[in-house]
Amino acid sequence: MNNNNLDHLAIIMDGNGRWALERGLDRTAGHAAGEHSLSKTIDWAIKNNIQWLTVYAFSTENWLRSDDEVEYLMFFNRDILLRRRDEFNQKGVRFRFLGDLTDKKIPEENKELMTETENLTQKNTKLNLNFAFNYGSHDEIHNAVLNLHNLNLDKELTINDIKDSFIKYFQYPEIPFPDLLLRTAGETRISNFLLYQISYTELLFIEDLWPDINADILDDVLLEFNSRNRTYGKN
Ligand code: IPE
Ligand code: IPE
Ligand code: MG
C-alpha cells in the first residue's frame, strides 16, 4: 500500500562542494559524504513505497569542472557500484542509467559496470532507481528527435503522430513523468534536468545540502508534496 501520491521522485542532489568547503575539506569529500544520503534516500523511498526515484549524479555540463574533480567523480561512481550494487540488488532496486553511455569521455570500466548493474538488477521491482549520469535534457530531446527521424524515414509524420509517439523515442519510454522534483542546496534552477518530463511536476527547492539529507527531511518533503493541489490546468 502506498500511503501517499508520490510515485516518482526526482532529485537534483546539489551542495556537495559547499558542504565540504564549509568544513575546510576538498570538494571531493562532499561527494564522498553524499553517498550516505543516497543510500538513506533509497531506504526511505522503499519504506514509503515510492516506485520511481531519479537522481542527477553527473550532468553533460559537469565535464566543465576541473580535471581532478571529473576524474574523482568517474572513480567515485564506479567505486559505489563495485562496493554496493549487491546490497542494492538484495534490497530489490532496479538500476537504469539515464544519459549517453556511448560518450568516449566516460572510462570503459564505468561503462562496463553500469551495463552489468542494469543486467544484474533488471528483474527487481521494489524500487526503480534511475541514475542520471552524463545526462542532459537537451541531449535527451535531440536524441529522441534523431531516433524518430531515423526510424520513420519512409513515413510522412503528422504533428499528431509526433505528439502520440514522441516519448517512445526516449532512452527509457517506460519511465513515468516525475510527480515531484526536489533540489537541495538552495539554487532555484533546473540545470538541464528532465525538461520535457517536468511539465506538470511539483517543484521543491530546499536549503539543506545533499550530504545533510536524512529521513526526517525527506518526511517533511513528502508532507509538503501531499499538501499540494495538482490541478493540471483544470480548476
Ligand atoms: C552536486 O554537488 C554533485 C554534482 C554536481 C556532481 P556540487 O558539486 O554541485 O556542489 P556545490 O553546488 O558546488 O556545492
Ligand atoms: C546539477 O548540479 C547537476 C547535478 C546535481 C549532477 P550543478 O551544481 O552541476 O548545477 P549548476 O551548475 O548549479 O547549475
Ligand atoms: Mg552544484
Word description of this protein:
The chain is of the alpha/beta class and 235 residues long. The chain is built from seven helices and six strands; from the N terminus they run βααβαβαβααββα. A six-stranded parallel β-sheet has the order 3-4-2-1-5-6, with helices on both faces. The protein starts with 7 loop residues before the first strand and ends in a 9-residue tail after the last helix. Bound molecules: 3-methylbut-3-enyl trihydrogen diphosphate (2 copies) and magnesium ion. One 3-methylbut-3-enyl trihydrogen diphosphate binds next to strand 2.
Care to count the β-strands? 6
Number of helical stretches of at least 4 residues: 7
Spans with pLDDT under 50 lasting ≥5 residues?
none
User: What's the arrangement of strands in the largest beta sheet?
Assistant: 3-4-2-1-5-6
Please provide the ordered H/E string of secondary-structure elements. Answer: EHHEHEHEHHEEH
Q: Summarize model confidence as the mean pLDDT.
A: 96
Structural class: alpha/beta
Please tag this protein with its features.
7 helices; binds magnesium ion; single chain; globular; alpha/beta; 15% strand; 235 residues; binds 3-methylbut-3-enyl trihydrogen diphosphate; 6-stranded parallel beta sheet
Task: Give a quick summary of the entry.
The protein is of the alpha/beta class and 235 residues long. It is built from 7 helices and 6 strands.
Outline the fold blueprint:
Layout: E1 8-12, H1 16-22, H2 27-47, E2 52-59, H3 67-90, E3 93-98, H4 108-120, E4 127-135, H5 137-151, H6 159-165, E5 180-183, E6 202-205, H7 215-226
Parallel strand pairs: 1-2, 1-5, 2-4, 3-4, 5-6
Helix pairs in contact: 1-2, 2-3, 3-4
One 3-methylbut-3-enyl trihydrogen diphosphate is lined by residues 13-18, 58, 62, 73, 185.
